[in-house]
Specification:
By secondary structure, this protein is α/β, with parallel strands linked by helices. Helices cover about 25% and strands about 20% of the residues. The chain has two domains: about 210 residues, L-asparaginase, N-terminal domain (Rossmann fold, 3-Layer(aba) Sandwich); about 120 residues, Rossmann fold, CATH 3.40.50.40. An eight-stranded mixed sheet has the order 4-1-5-7-10-11-14-15, sandwiched between helices. The chain is globular. The mean pLDDT is about 90.
Length: about 350
C-alpha cells in the first residue's frame, strides 16, 4: 500500500532549537529522523510539503484548494492520503475538503498534534502512524474509510463533524453530533455503520474550487444591540451569515432584530441558524422565540458545526453565485454527511 503524506505545517512539524529553545518548522530530513518508523513498515510512505510550511491560523480557502489539488495530482498513484495540519483550524480545512472533492473514493485523513514531534512526550508519533494505517486500511471490498476524516488521540471522526474543543489536552477534537468512525487501541475498531460505504470509483475525482469569502458569523448574546447586528448585516456585498443562536435555535424577539434580518434576506443575503450548543439541533418553530427567525427567512442549519456550515456556505456561494434559492436548498441538504435532518 502507498500513502502520500502532505505536510502543511503546524505544531506536529515543529522542532525546538537547541540554543534558543524556540520552536521552528523542521526541514524534511529532520522530520523524517524523528519518525523513522514511518518508513520502515509495510506501508510505503512518501512526503510532499507546503512551501513554506504554515501555521494553521494562516490557512485560508487558497490553502484548502492547494491541499485538495495535491491529493488530486497524486490520486492515481496512492491508496490513501494523510494531511498533517495545525490543530487550530483543522476542522475548517477537513470540512472544506469534504465539499471540494467530487467522487472521492479513497481515504483522506487529517491529523496533527498538541506537542511538537521532537518533544519527549509528544503525541505526534501515535497520531501520525495511526493515521497512516487508517489511510492504508483496505479490505476485500476496497478502502475502509473512503472519505475525509480526522484522527487524534485514539479516535477517528468524520472531518466535517469535528470541532476543536481543547487547547490543553491530547483529546483536542470532538464530534458532538455524530459517532466516531473508529477507535484505536491495541487494534483499530471501525464503526462501519457510520462510515460512508465504498461504492467503487464510479466517477473520476473532481475538484470544486470556488469559494465566496464575503460571509460572516453573527453570534447572539444577551443584551446585543441593534448597532452590533447592523454592523454585520449591513456589510457591503455581504453574501451569507452564520447566525449563532441560543438553545434549539432561539433568539430575542426584538422587532428591530426581525426587521434587520428580514431586510438582509430580502437583499439576497443567505442566513442560516446555527445553535451555540455543541450537542443538539436547531428546531425553529419549536419555541415561540424562534418564530421571528422563520418569518424573516432564516433557514435551519440543523446539527451542523460552525466550521462545516461556514465552509459549506462559502463553497455553495462560490460554486452557485447567482442562484440563492439553490444555495438555500443545498444548505438544508446533507451533501457528504455533514448534518442530520430529523
Amino acid at each position: 500500500m502507498k500513502v502520500l503524506l502532505i505536510l502543511t505545517g503546524g505544531t506536529i512539524s515543529m522542532v525546538r532549537d537547541a540554543e534558543t529553545g524556540a520552536l521552528h518548522p523542521a526541514d524534511m530530513q529532520t522530520f523524517k529522523a524523528f519518525v523513522p518508523e514511518l518508513f520502515a513498515g509495510d506501508i510505503h510512505v512518501e512526503m510532499v510539503p507546503f512551501e513554506p510550511l504554515l501555521d494553521s491560523s494562516d490557512l485560508n480557502p487558497d490553502s484548502w484548494i492547494q491541499m485538495a489539488q495535491m491529493v488530486y495530482n497524486h490520486y492515481d498513484q496512492y491508496d490513501g492520503f494523510v494531511i498533517l495540519h495545525g490543530t487550530d483550524t483543522m476542522s475548517y480545512s477537513a470540512s472544506a475538503l469534504s465539499f471540494i472533492f467530487e467522487g472521492l473514493s479513497k481515504p483522506v485523513v487529517f491529523t496533527g498534534s498538541q506537542l511538537p514531534v521532537g518533544v519527549l512526550r509528544s503525541d505526534a508519533k501515535e497520531n501520525l502512524l495511526t493515521a497512516i494505517e487508517i489511510a492504508a486500511a483496505y479490505d476485500a471490498n476496497g478502502p475502509i474509510v473512503p472519505e475525509v476524516c480526522l484522527y487524534m488521540d485514539g479516535e477517528l471522526y468524520r472531518g466535517n463533524r469535528t470541532t476543536k474543543r481543547n487547547a490543553e489536552h491530547f483529546s483536542a477534537f470532538k464530534s458532538y453530533n455524530y459517532p466516531a468512525l473508529a477507535k484505536a487501541g491495541v487494534h483499530i475498531s471501525y464503526n462501519r455503520q457510520f462510515i460512508e460505504p465504498y461504492r467503487g470509483e464510479v466517477l473520476p475525482l473532481g475538484l470544486m474550487k470556488k469559494f465566496e469569502t464575503r460571509v460572516a458569523i453573527l453570534k447572539l448574546f444577551p443584551g446585543i444591540t441593534e448597532e452590533v447586528v447592523a454592523a454585520i448585516l449591513d456589510i457591503p456585498n455581504l453574501k451569507g451569515v452564520v447566525l449563532e443562536t441560543f438553545g434549539a435555535g432561539n433568539a430575542p424577539t426584538h422587532e428591530w432584530l426581525y426587521r434587520r434580518l428580514r431586510n438582509a434576506v430580502d437583499r439576497g443575503v443567505v442566513i442560516v441558524n446555527k445553535t451555540q450548543c455543541h450537542t443538539g439541533s436547531v428546531a425553529m418553530g419549536h419555541y415561540a422565540v424562534s418564530m421571528n427567525l422563520l418569518k424573516a427567512g432564516v433557514i435551519s442549519g440543523y446539527d451542523i458545526t460552525t466550521e462545516a456550515l461556514l465552509t459549506k456556505m462559502m463553497h455553495l456561494l462560490g460554486e452557485i453565485p447567482n442562484d440563492v434559492k439553490k444555495v438555500k436548498e443545498l444548505l438544508s441538504t446533507s451533501l457528504c454527511g455533514e448534518l442530520t435532518i430529523e
